[in-house]
Please model this.
Amino acid sequence: MISISISATGKIKQFISEEKVIQISEDRQLNDLKLDVGIPSNQVCGFMVNGSIKRGTDTLCDGDDLKFIMLVGAG
Amino acid sequence: MNLERYSRQKEVLGSEGQDKLLNSRVLVIGTGGLGSSVLYYLTASGVGTIGIVDKDELEISNLNRQILHREKSLGKDKSQSAGRSLLEFNSELKLNIISEKLDKALAESLFPDYDIIINCVDNYNTRKIVSEIAVKFNKSVVEAGIEMMHGFVQIIIPGETACFNCFNLEEKEIKRQVLGAAAGMIGCMQSLECIKILTGKWDKSYSYISMDFNDYKTDRIFLSPAYYCCGCK
Model:
């Protein structure tokens, strides 16, 4: 198990009221973490880890800071 | 040209900034909820030349947010409708109307002729095309999206900030529900960012802004190009 701190931008704040620490398994992909924190699977978002954009298939290391970047699509 | 029209923004932009706008060429893709306010405010600010790309015809369900259009244009070409409104608003505007669907070939033919691209579309596929071709031709983009009560604006400066394709997204169905006022606000933010970039006033401290219209919570972060993005890195 590793711990990560999660912060959020924009829409995520309705799912996470404040920064929190969750426990995840080491092979958990970023895409899967959306579900862990309660983001709907159809919600499109990017991932920023320690200030850098990552793929949804990337995984995290202990202590990483993850931000979800919301990308809504209508115009 | 009557510069008195721009006298109330003279101290904001300076005469040099105003000259830059008057000599600028901006391409706006989409004349919907975002595009309506983008096009009005860029025209109002004195951008000299604006290109409009939109192939759609106006539908009654567009009119809760697409304030650039009028009922008399229902069923008609939206790019032409938008052009008429803008020329009624500012007859000195130089306007290029392109009533076509944007694909890679069209983007490659259009983008070199403009200083900046303002993307106001409603799907991820076109966003990816715009980002890819803009980076190819070293053109800045002001990207945006809106759904329900949430919106974002992304500034894409090739080589400096993340492009849209840095996110490596899969296409997902979009919930096309939005209040016109919220779309208008995001469009206004796109206009402001466009003006700041064109006049050298963008301070490079952020490249992504998100806004929750329920409580006006706003986030700003700077996004560098992703290490795996072969386009912009």
About this structure: The longest strand of chain B covers residues 140-147. The CA atoms of residues 162 and 225 of chain B lie 4 Å apart.
